[in-house]
Amino acid sequence: MSNRLALEDSPYLQQHKDNPIDWYGWCDEAFERAKREQKAIFISIGYSSCHWCHVMEHDVFENEEIAVFVNKHFICIKVDREERPDIDKHFQELHVMLNRRSGGWPLSIFCTPENKPFYAATYIPPHNRDKMMGFSELTAIISEKIALNDEKLFQNADEITGFMKPKETPTQATQLDEKIMIQFGKQAEHNFDPINGGFSKAPKFPHTSTLKTLMSQERLESDPQRLKIITHTLDSMARGGMYDLIDGGFCRYSTEESWLIPHFEKMTYDNALLCELYALASVLFNNPFYLRCATETADFMMKLMMEDHLFYSASDADTEGEEGKYFVYSYDEITQALQNIGISNLDEAIEILQITPDGNFEGHCIVTLSSLERPQWFENFVKECQKLRSTRTYPFIDRKINVAWNAMMIKSLLILGKQIPSYQDNAITALESLLSTMFIDGVLYHTTLIHKQPKIEAFLEDYSYLTDALIQAYQSTFDEVYLIRAQQLTNKALELFYQNGAWYFSRGAFPTLCELDDGSYPSAMAVMMDNLLSLGSLIDSKYRHFAFKSLEYSSIKLMKTPIYYPKLTEQTIRYLKGDRIVKATKELLKSLESLKYPFVLLKNDASVEGFLICGENSCFATTFEAKILDELIHSTLQ
Prior knowledge:
The chain is an alpha+beta fold. The chain has four domains: 4-164, Glutaredoxin (3-Layer(aba) Sandwich); 179-318 and 398-577, Glycosyltransferase (Alpha/alpha barrel), CATH 1.50.10; 327-391, no CATH class; 580-636, no CATH class. 49% of the residues lie in helices and 13% in strands. It contains 25 helices and 25 strands. A five-stranded mixed sheet has the order 1-3-2-4-5. Strands 15, 16, 17 and 18 form a four-stranded antiparallel sheet that branches. Helix 17 (421-438) runs antiparallel to helix 18. The chain is globular. The termini are far apart.
């Protein structure tokens, strides 16, 4: 028999509708009942493509014996962290405060009947195991303490609630200067894995914003070591494993250091950011392999993760309860596919694919390449592998539409469209579809299920990333409508989320300061700095004032450990170096190839003859020759 989650739109909540746990969605009814019946509250936060969320569901939430007990003694609430990131961020901060380490998903929170939290954990096994308290034992202790009105527990909950209230951060600041570039470079080099590329050890994430900031620095002044860090990492990720050579697109992260064995879920935000990164790198390094990686990622997203010009949120790692089942092959399947395309020297082909009879993942084979160079037969081999996949069940797809993540993907298509115009057409169609679906009667919304009416209003990340996409749309089409919309959204974001240099992620039921660091994707506050600087150059210098106050507010952290805040570091460098605006007619601007200086904006100006190069407050030079623009811009920076 289904529980209350059967009435929810969220795919994640729908996954739990048949659990024996008597789940509520996030609602007043649940909290009122807890208070009325004096029952503890258990809050479980996760998302549909989260592997360990599935594990906890199987181990704990589908356990009939556990369900009988918690239904009697607890009010249980399920939250989709992608639907309600404000709730998730609030309780992730709680986890850090109580455990002195970062949290994750599933996130497990226990509260008093008055909804005051006192305990936070991530995955909890069904019973005591390996020094971990089990869910059965933990809930037995908590229910008893609540029933006995344990004074210490309630006192702790009161203290924790007090600590969790947003506090004014001291406005002490330090000078922002170009030393940040040296510090960022040193810290990136310290974290760099010279063997496998990337940063730090397993599990290894792509760190796209770190690479993008390094690329901006490389465009300012080339450095051999920086160049090695960027290209070795891009090459290593693109050879397969975490990058899906068969369908295209990137998995969430690598479970080990060489990028071979991925966590097989595919997130829209990862693919958007990596598509953009490889598209930019293909131009910067004149590398066709990077362009192919970008186009394959874009094609994957549009083929398998899109409906009615809107992008879904994610696809799962598991198929039929088995991680990676859709993606991997047996050794015999690989050799048969090679034989089907007429490969006679199997040993050589197997070596190129880095395949062995024992497999490279739990007895199965993940397709990788020994180098970026693809043999002539590889395209036909991919088609054979795709045929095999077509007979399998595709992983669960979360068909939720998230504004910020759609905006990221749209921006990447616009950037790719600078080289291949058809992607720009797709991007503009997707942008208009996103606006008509999620911007209703002057209100921007955060998320909705495909073909459903949105209900949850937007957070800072939605304003930030959608504005970013709109500015990029203007840079691609020079249609003033996109610039006007970007300004309108930024003005609203300043009204809703800005306060004396600080930015809030949410100002609703859970007022939460926006993080400065780049987590799963770049900080919404850092993206807003990008927008403010762009609007300051293109429309009104007042936006640069808000950017400066925000950077100043964060300056001590930024100057000390910029590697934690790569997107914000890039915008600090941009603020210090200054934008250059190239003004010309729309027709001339569309003919321009990429310029080397990383902080160039293009502005349509029908009154200008040729190209006019300007800074924020003055103009420097005019030319009719596009090929000398780089040289002229460089001369204005001396």
